Amino acid sequence: MNSGLIVKKSALARMASSKWISGLVLIAALAACSEAVQKIAAQEPTDDTACALDGMILKDYAGPKAQMHYTEGQPDFFCDLTELFGQVLAPEHKRAVAAIYVQDMGKTEWEHPQGNWIDAKTAIYVVGSKKRGSMGPTFGSFSNAQDAEAFAQKEGGKVFRFEQITADMVSMNSTAAHDDGMSH
């Protein structure tokens, strides 16, 4: 009777050990996945980097640029933030997005922006300013609210967070996105 109890305890110990090892393997796999997502960094556009939507060369135009990295495949670049949001908010957009970056216009010049890439989802946006990008009126993107507020005071527009941007704001016919008289 004691030998049967020992066998059962031994089998239970092996099962517990197996579950513990399986748990460690799962944790390691999840950590590897999150490391892969964290390693996606913004890429500086080259002299010939073109917009994914219209083929315009990014460096030829003023205003903030954007890039969208997917879980699979190459990133898309956008010469204008209204184009970026048009893609992000499109109901047919199905590719899994790993990261989105925009330029911090509080740290780079509007006419020839370079570097200063920030996470688009944590950025602060000014919609409706008189500043223009490659496609006409566009959004300003900033890493902090103070820079966004100062920009809106000087250039017009209203301050929004990523999740507050709507399709109406990016529509080429929308008064929200293109009203030069919008006050802050």
Helix vs. strand class:
alpha+beta
Instruction: Give the averaged pLDDT, no decimals.
Output: 81
For the biggest β-sheet, the strand order reads 2-1-3-4
Strands, count: 9
What's the helix-strand series?
HEEHEEEEEEHEHH
Summarize the structure in words.
This protein is an alpha+beta fold and 184 residues long. It has helices spanning 2-38, 81-88, 145-155, 167-170, 175-178, and strands at residues 66-70, 76-78, 97-103, 117-119, 124-127, 132-133, 136-137, 140-142, 158-161. The longest helix has 37 residues, at 2-38. The chain is built from 5 helices and 9 strands, in the order αββαββββββαβαα. Helices cover 35% and strands 18% of the residues. It has a 4-stranded antiparallel sheet.
Short description:
The chain is α+β, with helices and mostly antiparallel strands and 184 residues long. 35% of the residues lie in helices and 18% in strands.
Characteristic terms for this protein:
disordered C terminus, 184 residues, three-stranded antiparallel beta sheet, alpha+beta, 5 helices
Task: Describe the SSE topology.
Elements: H1 2-38, E1 66-70, E2 76-78, H2 81-88, E3 97-103, E4 117-119, E5 124-127, E6 132-133, E7 136-137, E8 140-142, H3 145-155, E9 158-161, H4 167-170, H5 175-178
Antiparallel strand pairs: 1-2, 1-3, 3-4, 5-8, 5-9, 6-7
